[in-house]
Write a structure and sequence with these properties.
Length: 221
């Protein structure tokens, strides 16, 4: 709910999903969840059906996804982090790729000088072959980072349930995807963002301050 030019960040993300055609949303909430629920309510103001899941135990991205298992009626679902904003055409490109190619797994990767704050994406042609979470600064041989936008098969739940907690004490979604690639022959299609395409990481305080003071990026979404 970070305020950005008169609106909460999450509203920009929600409107991007509406732009693509999504109408049924699940929002995983936790700290200060009341603010989010009070703002979006049941979603009818936006023509949506919104359900909320509370993540009381902050056990990682995989833990958040697992909480949604019983609410997902389809074999595939679209997932985005709640602090990452990209041009709406990226959401559309991912959805169209899923529709046209019938891919089980799609992952968006953004270009960066060094993915040490995120997860380095290694690929062979259009498919991901490895993900390295939080590589040491200056050590990654890839300039592509896990952007935080996916289409996933519900097969992801089986792997997530089998994971041990990471060194950070979390259930890591990227670890589950890696296991799927290396042990279950999953084909994870990559959508590579262009080098100069906008990606706002509002989880970074410095970036948030910069984007809050400059509105020119709004023309890029």
């Amino acid at each position: 709910m970070l305020p950005v030019h008169g609106r909460p960040l999450l509203e920009y993300i929600v409107e991007g999903l509406i732009h693509v055609g999504f109408r049924d949303l699940i929002i995983v909430v936790g700290y200060q969840k009341e603010q989010i629920i009070r703002h979006f309510q049941d979603g009818k103001k936006w023509g949506l059906n919104i359900e909320y899941v509370i993540q009381n135990n902050l056990n990682g991205t995989g833990g958040a996804v697992l909480l949604c298992e019983n609410l997902i009626p389809n074999q595939h679902f679209f997932l985005t982090w709640g602090d990452i904003l990209v041009p709406y055409q990226i959401y559309r490109e991912v959805n169209e790729l899923y529709t046209n190619e019938n891919q089980d797994f799609i992952l968006v990767a953004n270009y960066t000088k060094d993915p040490h704050k995120g997860a380095a994406i290694y690929y062979d042609g259009p498919y991901c072959v490895n993900i390295i979470e939080k590589p040491k600064k200056g050590k990654s041989k890839s300039n592509y980072n896990n952007c935080g936008i996916f289409i996933l098969s519900t097969n992801i739940f089986h792997v997530l349930k089998s994971l041990n907690l990471s060194k950070r004490g979390e259930i890591e979604l990227t670890q589950a995807i890696n296991i799927g690639i290396n042990e279950r022959n999953w084909k994870v299609r990559i959508v590579k963002m262009e080098k100069k395409q906008f990606r706002g990481d509002f989880g970074d305080k410095n970036i948030y301050k910069q984007l809050k003071s400059d509105s020119s990026w709004l023309n890029k979404i």
